[in-house]
């Protein structure tokens, strides 16, 4: 019996894989627990189409991620905020603020959890911030100016 797995099954395979299993195991375990569906020609064609759509979406996401990394590493991110005469900001720059600024400037969203600030940004000037986008870690330059 051929089945297409709907979930990861230990010792059998991962979601979306076509597997040949014994009839009893397929009927009594995989199909009953809705871990797999019977692999008919129509279902196989549908899963192949979904797989190709998912691959193209993944490729598009990887391309967008590399473009964002190139943009962020080539030019500093400019932020303006209120500060006193000594250059101390009235409020520090947070991860959420950096994330919002990236979304405004480049149109791509970065989770604030992916941003690591090594030291608090409370002064005017240049600062380095670590960013994890996808599986890549990059360091970007942030320039804070007085408003």
Features:
147 residues, 3 helices, 9 strands, four-stranded mixed β-sheet, 32% strand, 37% helix, Ribosomal Protein L9, domain 1, Ribosomal Protein L9, domain 2, single chain, alpha+beta, three-stranded antiparallel β-sheet
Task: Report on this structure.
The protein is an alpha+beta fold and 147 residues long. The protein contains three helices and nine strands, in the order ββαβαββαββββ. It folds into two domains: 2-62, Ribosomal protein L9, N-terminal domain (Ribosomal Protein L9, domain 1); 76-146, Roll (Ribosomal Protein L9, domain 2). It has helices spanning 23-31, 41-74, 95-106; strands at 2-5, 18-20, 36-38, 77-81, 88-93, 115-117, 121-123, 125-133, 136-146. Strands 4-9-8-6 form a four-stranded mixed sheet. The chain is elongated. The model has no long low-confidence stretch (mean pLDDT 90).
């Amino acid at each position: 019996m051929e089945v297409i797995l709907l979930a990861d099954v230990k010792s059998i395979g991962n979601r979306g894989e076509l597997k040949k299993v014994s009839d009893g195991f397929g009927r009594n375990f995989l199909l009953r627990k809705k871990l797999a569906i019977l692999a008919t020609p129509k279902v196989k064609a549908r899963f192949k189409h979904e797989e190709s759509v998912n691959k193209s979406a993944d490729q598009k996401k990887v391309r967008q991620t590399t473009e964002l990394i190139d943009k962020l590493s080539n030019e500093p991110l400019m932020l303006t905020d209120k500060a006193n005469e000594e250059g101390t900001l009235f409020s520090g720059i947070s991860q959420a603020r950096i994330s919002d600024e990236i979304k405004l400037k480049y149109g791509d969203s970065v989770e604030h959890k992916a941003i690591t600030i090594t030291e608090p940004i409370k002064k005017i000037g240049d600062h380095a911030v670590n960013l994890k986008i996808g599986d890549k870690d990059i360091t970007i330059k942030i320039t804070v100016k007085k408003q």
